[in-house]
Amino acid sequence: MKQLLLVFIGGGVGSVLRYAIGKWLNNAETGIPYGTFAANILGSLLIGIILGYATKNETLSQNHTLLLATGFCGGFTTFSTFAYENHVFLKSGDFTSFAFYTIVSFIVGFLAVFAGMYIVKFM
Q1: pTM for the whole structure
Q2: Where do the structural domains in the chain lie, given as residue ranges?
């Protein structure tokens, strides 16, 4: 039960922060989802740092990892919103934005995870 509560709390905080970033950065005029992109990339970097640190130092407990990686990062990043925003691009016929947003999100997201794990090596 404690583990479920930790994931719940972390996920709630992450979701609220993602919502705030989306409100702040998403551009309603152009439809470009800068906020979602920023949250997904920052969340990828953070999960790389958290899990890299947990692996390297073995100082984070399973509960810490559940709170931070599963809960916070899981709530902060959002595949469903990413998928919906791509649907909007496709529905409007904006294939260039769809391709660019999808490819850049995947490449930069993976690089951010690897960068986070690489950063931990020097901590």
Answers
A1: 0.90
A2: 2-19+34-120
